[in-house]
């Protein structure tokens, strides 16, 4: 027993337990099981530990932040929106410390603000996320903290539906058959989008910038990764667009597609040309292929973080349990 899980004194052998956990984390499937178990039963403890590592920052409205919102942000806001932001900020965020207590407030449906009123958290969350992006842009947050905070606090949920247009299986099959017979290059693109649910523009960029052997350091994974990594049944390609306006991280697709991607990717025409070809062939547009993939994935996984993560919907991830009372 001395060299097993239980030592000679009848207590857990910490060294053996930690070595066992370390071994489990080397296997991708088992790693997912371990992380899911920890998040299911010990999520609060994990979040508290993570929040302890946050930098000591007091939230303060400044002229620089205001200038960033109206001039430097990828989508500058209007003067009216700026006034609304400023009003909500001084009621609910001004002077608060970046930490566990603030994150807990923002995760709920309402928060008590300085005017003594409980306000919905949707707008404070949105402004908070802008502030986090601003802090990262000016070098006050490292990338790991930046991405962790954006994942922890989702933005406003607009309640948008994927699409209300019905998409029949026959239309998908028919479109794929037409492309397979007449445009095998676009056929492979459609298959890739159907399996990965990657956006049309991102799929084209992946095919155009294909560099499977490139190695990159991913700070939030804390390790080096190859752009392309393949396993028994599937491959994943790192796209590295997590901070884009329309983010995407990894693209997942069946391993059988790999040889076809490498064969046809250089033959693809540009976006506008593909759109004209699709229109002339009277088949489903690329966007509808992705919508179909999203619907199917959501049906299989349910309304969970699994499909949100796979489809790079980072702003919609639920990092904390939601209050349903």
Automatic annotation (TrEMBL):
Pfam families listed in its UniProt record: Phage_integr_3
Molecular functions per Gene Ontology: DNA binding
One GO term of the biological process aspect: DNA integration
Residue span, Integrase SSV1 C-terminal domain: 167-311
Name under which the protein is recorded: Integrase SSV1 C-terminal domain-containing protein
Organism: Ignisphaera aggregans (strain DSM 17230 / JCM 13409 / AQ1.S1)
